[in-house]
Amino acid sequence: MQIETDNEIFDLALEVISNEQLTPSINVIVLHAPEVASRFKAGQFMEIKVNDSLFPLLRRPFSIHRVVGEQIEIMSKVVGIGTRILYRVKAGETLQTLAPLGNSFGYDKDDFDLGILISGGIGVAPMAMLEETLRARGKDVLNIVGARTAEELVTRYLTNVHLATDDGTAGFKGNVVSLFSSILPSLKGKRLRVFACGPNPMLNALSKFCNAHEIPCEVSIESTMGCGIGICYGCPVRIKDANGKVHNKLLCQYGSVIDAREIVFEE
Ligand SMILES: Cc1cc2nc3c(=O)[nH]c(=O)nc-3n(C[C@H](O)[C@H](O)[C@H](O)COP(=O)(O)OP(=O)(O)OC[C@H]3O[C@@H](n4cnc5c(N)ncnc54)[C@H](O)[C@@H]3O)c2cc1C
C-alpha cells in the first residue's frame, strides 16, 4: 500500500533484494524501491519496521547508504533487538518503510570546493551517497573515517580515504578530530565544508574544532527516534539561534543534519 502525504512521505512495503554481512556486526541491505529511490537526497533517512510482529513495535531510523537505479541500500550495525533482526533478514522478505525523511546535507552550497566527509563508526553509512552527490557537482572530496579498531572500519564506495583507529590497528592512532587537525595545514587556501556523522561525543568535539577554526560544518545527529515524523516527541535536540537563545526542536523534523554552530550537545 502506498500513502502519499502533503510532505510526500511514502509508507511502503519494500522487497529485500539482498543482505550482505560485511563484518560480524555490519550488514548492507538492498531494497527494491521504485517509487522512492530517485527522491532521496544525501543525508536523508528512512524508518524501517524490522518484522511483521508487534515486537519491536516501533520502526528504526536508517540513513540511505546508496541509491542505485530503483534500488536503495541501507548499512546497519547491530546494537540491539531491531538491528539484530535486520542482520539476518533474507532476500525475498519485505520490510515496511517510511520515507524519505529528514533534511539533507548541504551539498548544493557554493561556499566550498572541497567536502571533508568525517565519519565515526556506523556514521560512515550516509557518506557513499554524499560523496557521489558531491562529485556529480564537481566538488573534490576527502574522507576521514574512524573506528575503535581496524575490524570495525568500513569504507565502502569511498575514495581519498584517511583512516583513524582508537587503538592504532589501522591508519592514524587517535580520533578523527585529531586526524583532521593534523591534515588541516595541508589544505590551506582551499574552501572547505565539513560533513560529519558519528557518535555525538565525536560530533561535539568536531563542531567545537570547526567553529573555532571558522570552517563550515554540518553534523548528522544520533538520537533514539520513535516515529520519525514528529508525532511521538521522542527525539528532542537543543538548538541555539543567532542571538544565543536555546530552543527545543525535534531531530526528525529539524534534522537530522544540523549546522555545527546551532547544535547544543549534552556535555
Ligand atoms: C537519523 C538517524 C539515522 C541513522 N542511521 C543509521 C544507519 O544508517 N545505520 C545504523 O546502523 N544505524 C543508524 N542509526 C541508528 C539506528 O537507528 C539505531 O542503532 C537503531 O534504531 C537501534 O535499534 P535496535 O532495535 O537495534 O536497538 P534497541 O534495542 O532499540 O537499543 C539498543 C541500544 O542502542 C541504543 N540506541 C538506540 N537507537 C540509537 C540511536 N539512534 N543512537 C544511538 N544509540 C541508540 C539504545 O539506547 C540502547 O542502548 C540512525 C539513527 C538516526 C536517528
What does this protein look like?
With 267 residues, this protein is an alpha/beta fold. It has two domains: 10-101, Elongation Factor Tu (Ef-tu), domain 3 (Beta Barrel); 114-264, Nucleotide-binding domain of ferredoxin-NADP reductase (FNR) module (Rossmann fold), CATH 3.40.50.80. The protein is built from five helices and 17 strands. The longest helix has 13 residues, at 200-212. Mean pLDDT is 94; it is low at 1-6. The chain binds flavin-adenine dinucleotide. Flavin-adenine dinucleotide (FAD) is lined by residues 45, 56, 60-63, 75-77, 79-83, 122, 125, 222-225, 256.
Bound small molecules, by name, code or SMILES, are: flavin-adenine dinucleotide
Number of strands: 17
Total of helices:
5
Helix content: 10-25%
Strand content: 25-35%
Kindly report the CATH topology of the largest domain: Rossmann fold
Judged by helices, strands and strand pairing, the structural class is alpha/beta
Tally of distinct domains? 2
Largest sheet: 7 strands, antiparallel
Average pLDDT, all residues: 94
Strand order of the largest sheet: 4-3-7-1-2-6-5
Order of helices and strands: EEEEEEHEEHEEEHEHEEEHEE
Brief overview, please?
This protein has 267 residues and is α/β, with parallel strands linked by helices. The protein is 16% helix and 35% strand. It is globular and about 50 Å long.
Features:
single chain, alpha/beta, 2 domains, seven-stranded antiparallel beta sheet, 5 helices, 16% helix, 35% strand, globular, binds flavin-adenine dinucleotide
